[in-house]
Write a structure and sequence with these properties.
single chain; 759 residues; mainly beta; five-stranded mixed sheet; 41 strands; globular
Length: 759
C-alpha cells in the first residue's frame, strides 16, 4: 500500500526534521496545568470547546463517558465510532451504507452521521475545532486516524457552551503529542474481507519542543458486493511549551475512497451480500490545519485561542431508480431505467476562538469563570449532474450519454458565538455551575446555474441558550449531579435547499428551493450519580429527558428510498436511563452498560409515506402523538470481560444486544411489517507478547455468526420481475433492511518502543 501523496510526504519530512530539533538534550519542560487534558488520563474533563484548564470529573454536572488511546488499542476498534458503539451506554449505530467507515452513530436517539438528510443532534470537536461539516452538519468519521487520538469525552445533555448541534451531547476529542506519547510504534493487520492495513506513530520531545506524527493506510473489498474501502490518513503535530505557555500546530490530511450498498428489500435478504443497486462511491479529501495556544497572564488567569482552516472536497456517484420509467416503451434515451447522480462538494472552513479562564477563589471558595467567543465561516460550492442509465443483470447502472448539469449552488455560513461558564464551590461538598451561549447564525444560498432562482435566499437565526448544573459530593467516592440545559441547531444549507413539498429532492442532491425552516430548540433535564464504593468497583446512573421543539425530519415523497423534502414536525421527546458498572477482580476486569430510551413524537402531523401499508388518501399517514421515532433501539445492553492471563497474554470477550426499532417511513408505527427484530452480537480479542515490545493480536467479530439487520426503511422494490429483473409495473412496497456483517477474523502484529525502554 502506498501511503499519501506529495502533501503527505512533505508533512512526514517536516516531522522528521522537527524531531531532530526536539530531541536536543535537556530536561523536560516544567509541567503546565493547561496541558492536563492532552494526557492519556481521563479524570480531567474539557468542559468548554477550547481546551483550557478542564474540570475534575467529580465537579462535572452531567454524565461523562471517556476512552483513551489504550482502550482503542486494547479493543482493536476501527475508529472512535466503533469503540463507542461497543462500550458506551446509550450509543448505537447502523449500517445504512454497509461500509464500516460510514456509520450512523446515535446517542440518546440523536445522531452524528455522515448521511446528508439525517438530522444531526450531536456536536463533535477535535482539539477544540468543530468537526460537524458546515454544509449538512454531518460528521465524517473516516477523517481522523484512530492512532492519533489521545482521549475522547462524551458529555451528555444540551450544553449550550458547545454551540450548535449540541442537542443530545458533545464529543470532545484530543490528539496525541510528543510530550504525552514519546516513542514509536508500527502495526500491520490483515484478514477477513481482504483487509490489509498498516499504521505507524512516532513522538518525541526535547527540553521545550515536541513532535508527533501518525499515519494509517487500509484497503479492503468489504463483505457485501461493491463495498470496497481505501483509507489514507496522516496526522502531524509539533509544539512548544514551558511552565506558562503552550503552542501546538497540527495538520491532518486524508484521502479516502469509500463504497457502500443500499438496504435490501426483505424478499432479497436470503442473499445479503448482494447490492440492491450500485454503484455508490464517495471520495473524501481533507486538509485541516490548526494552531492552538495558551498562556498564563498570571498564575490564576489563562488565555487560550485557536485558529484553523479546513478544506473538504467530496465527490459522490450514486445509482437511483427512475420511478417514472414507462415499462410499456423500450428502455433507452428519454426513457431510462435509472439515473447515475453525480455530485461534487468543495467546502472551505476557517475560524478562530478566544477564551479566558479565571481560576481564583471567591470568598475563599473554589471558583472558575470562563469567558469565550468563536467565529466560524464556511463557503461551499455544490454541483450535481445526472446521467441516464440502464440496469445490468446484477443491478449495476450502465450510463447512456453524457452527464447533464442539474444544480449549481453556493452556500455561505457564518456562526458567531459568545459563551460563559461559571463553576463555584460554596463548600467542599457542593459545586454550582451556570453557563450560557449567545449564537448568531447566518446562512446564504445562491444559484450559480442561472436557472434555479428559487435557491437564492438569506436566513439568520439568533438565540441565547442557558444552562445550570449542581454537584453534591458527600464523600470522595460519591457524586450526585443534576443539570438543565438548552441547545439549538439551525437548518443547514442542505435542509434549506430541500424544504419545498412541491419540489422534492433526491438526497444528497438536486436542491430546488429554500422555504424557511425554524431552528430546532432542545431542552434537557438530567440527574444521576457516580460512585466508587471500593477501589475495584465503580458505577454510575443517569436519567434524562430531552424535548426538541420544531424538530426537522426528512419526509419521503415517492417510492424511491431517498426522495423527499425536509419539514418541521413539531415537538419530539427522548426519555431515558443509563447505567454503567465496572469491577476488577485481580487480573479480571468486568464492564456492563445499559441504556433505555423512549423516543417519541409529541405533536401530531400528516406526512407522505407511499410505501406504508397503513397509508390513506394521497399516500399519506397520520403520525399521532406518542408514536415512536424510527431508527432508534428502545434498549441496549453491553457486557465486556478482559482477562490478563499472564504478563504476556490477555483475552477479551464482549457482547452487545439491541432492542427493536421502527423503519424510516413507519413514523406512525402502523406498517404491517412491524419493527425490525432485536439482535445481539458477540466479539472477542486476544493479545500475546512473544518478546518485549512485540504484540500479536486477534480480533473476532460476530463470534456466533448471527444474521441480523440494524437499519430499516420503507420503499418500493422495482426488481420484482422474473429473476429479480427491473419491472416498475410489478413494483411492490417492502420494508428494506441493512444486514449486519457475518463472522470475521483479523490478525495484527505490532511493535512499540516507548521513551525509557531498554531494548
Amino acid at each position: 500500500m502506498k501511503l499519501g501523496g506529495p502533501r503527505a510526504r512533505c508533512v512526514a519530512r517536516a516531522a522528521v526534521a522537527f524531531a531532530l530539533l526536539a530531541h536536543a538534550p535537556g530536561p523536560l519542560a516544567a509541567g503546565n496545568p493547561a496541558t492536563e487534558i492532552e494526557n492519556p488520563a481521563v479524570e480531567v474533563i474539557g468542559i468548554t470547546p477550547v481546551p483550557g484548564l478542564g474540570m475534575p470529573l467529580r465537579e462535572v454536572p452531567s454524565a461523562v463517558q471517556s476512552f483513551s488511546a489504550e482502550a482503542l488499542r486494547r479493543g482493536d476498534a476501527l475508529d472512535a465510532a466503533e469503540h463507542m458503539e461497543r462500550s458506551f451506554a446509550g450509543v448505537s449505530s447502523n449500517a445504512a451504507q454497509a461500509n464500516p467507515f460510514q456509520p450512523d452513530l446515535q446517542f440518546r436517539g440523536l445522531a452524528a452521521s455522515h448521511l446528508l438528510g439525517l438530522p444531526q443532534g450531536l456536536s463533535v470537536f477535535v482539539d477544540g475545532v468543530r468537526a460537524n461539516e458546515a454544509f449538512g452538519d454531518v460528521v465524517n468519521w473516516d477523517l481522523v486516524p484512530r492512532n492519533a487520538i489521545s482521549t475522547s469525552h462524551l458529555l451528555s445533555g444540551a450544553n449550550p457552551v458547545f454551540g450548535l448541534n449540541t442537542l443530545g451531547g458533545a464529543l470532545s476529542t484530543f490528539t496525541k503529542s510528543g510530550f504525552s506519547f514519546p516513542g514509536h510504534a508500527a502495526r500491520l493487520q490483515g484478514g477477513a474481507f481482504g483487509r490489509r492495513a498498516a499504521e505507524f506513530e512516532s513522538g518525541g520531545h526535547g527540553m521545550n519542543a515536541d513532535y508527533f506524527v501518525a499515519g494509517h493506510a487500509l484497503d479492503e473489498r468489504g463483505w457485501r458486493e461493491h463495498s470496497q474501502s481505501s483509507l489514507r490518513q496522516l496526522f502531524g503535530k509539533t509544539g512548544w511549551q514551558d511552565a506558562g505557555s503552550d503552542i501546538d500546530l497540527s495538520l491532518s490530511l486524508a484521502e479516502n475512497n469509500l463504497q457502500g450498498t443500499q438496504a435490501l428489500p426483505r424478499s432479497m435478504l436470503a442473499s445479503p451480500r448482494e447490492a440492491y443497486t450500485w454503484p455508490d462511491r464517495t471520495r473524501n479529501a481533507l486538509q485541516f490545519a490548526t494552531l492552538r495556544g495558551s498562556h498564563y497572564l498570571r498564575d490564576d488567569l489563562l488565555l487560550a485561542g485557536i485558529v484553523y482552516t479546513r478544506t473538504l472536497t467530496q465527490h459522490n456517484v450514486s445509482s437511483n431508480v427512475n420511478d417514472d420509467h414507462d415499462a410499456a416503451q423500450p428502455a433507452g434515451p428519454g426513457n431510462p431505467q435509472a439515473f447515475n447522480d453525480r455530485h461534487s462538494l468543495r467546502q472551505r472552513m476557517a475560524g478562530a476562538s478566544l477564551q479566558i479562564t479565571l481560576d481564583s477563589p471567591l470568598q475563599g471558595r473554589r471558583n472558575q469563570l470562563t469567558l469565550g467567543a468563536s467565529y466560524d465561516r464556511a463557503e461551499s460550492d455544490f454541483a450535481q449532474d445526472s446521467q441516464e442509465a440502464l440496469f445490468s443483470p446484477d443491478r449495476g447502472t450502465v450510463g447512456m450519454g453524457d452527464y447533464a448539469p442539474t444544480t449549481r449552488a453556493h452556500a455561505g455560513n457564518s456562526y458567531l458565538g459568545v459563551y460563559f461558564s461559571e463553576h463555584y464551590a460554596p463548600s467542599r461538598e457542593w459545586t454550582l455551575a451556570l453557563f450560557g451561549r449567545y449564537n448568531v447564525a447566518k446562512v446564504q444560498l445562491q444559484d450559480r446555474s442561472g436557472v434555479q432562482p428559487a435557491l437564492n435566499g438569506a436566513h439568520q437565526f439568533k438565540r441565547f441558550n442557558p444552562g445550570f448544573g449542581i454537584n453534591y459530593n458527600p464523600a470522595p467516592q460519591l457524586t450526585w449531579f443534576a443539570s438543565a440545559g438548552q441547545g439549538m441547531r439551525v437548518p443547514s444549507p442542505m435542509e434549506l435547499t430541500c424544504a419545498d413539498p412541491a419540489a422534492p429532492c433526491t438526497l444528497p442532491n438536486q436542491f430546488l428551493a429554500d422555504p424557511p425552516l425554524k431552528p430546532v430548540i432542545a431542552r434537557t433535564l438530567e440527574a444521576g450519580l457516580r460512585a466508587r464504593p471500593a477501589d475495584r468497583l465503580k458505577f454510575s446512573v443517569a436519567a434524562y429527558r430531552t424535548v426538541l421543539r420544531d424538530d426537522i425530519q426528512f419526509v419521503s415523497s415517492s417510492g424511491v428510498l431517498n426522495a423527499g423534502f425536509f419539514q418541521n414536525v413539531g415537538r419530539t421527546r427522548r426519555d431515558g436511563v443509563e447505567l454503567t458498572a465496572a469491577a476488577t477482580f485481580g487480573s479480571l476486569q468486568l464492564e456492563a452498560v445499559y441504556g433505555a430510551v423512549r423516543a417519541s413524537y409529541l405533536s401530531s402531523f400528516t406526512i407522505h409515506s407511499p410505501s406504508n401499508s397503513s397509508r390513506g388518501a394521497n399516500d399519506d399517514i397520520v403520525v399521532a402523538s406518542g408514536s415512536r421515532l424510527p431508527g432508534i433501539a428502545r434498549q441496549q445492553l453491553k457486557l465486556h470481560a478482559d482477562w490478563k492471563a499472564s504478563e504476556r497474554a490477555s483475552w477479551g470477550l464482549g457482547w452487545a444486544g439491541f432492542d427493536r426499532q421502527y423503519a424510516r417511513g413507519d413514523e406512525n408505527n402502523q406498517d404491517a411489517n412491524g419493527p425490525l427484530p432485536a439482535f445481539s452480537i458477540a466479539f472477542a480479542t486476544a493479545r500475546y507478547a512473544p518478546a518485549p515490545g512485540w504484540e500479536l493480536a486477534l480480533k473476532l467479530d460476530n463470534l456466533f455468526n448471527r444474521r441480523y439487520e440494524n437499519f430499516g426503511v420503507l420503499g418500493q422494490n422495482f426488481f420484482a420481475g422474473p429473476g429479480r429483473s427491473f419491472d416498475p409495473a410489478a413494483a411492490v412496497a417492502e420494508q428494506f433492511r441493512s444486514p449486519g456483517a457475518p463472522r470475521a477474523i483479523w490478525v495484527s502484529l505490532r511493535y512499540e518502543i516507548r521513551e525509557g525502554d531498554k531494548r
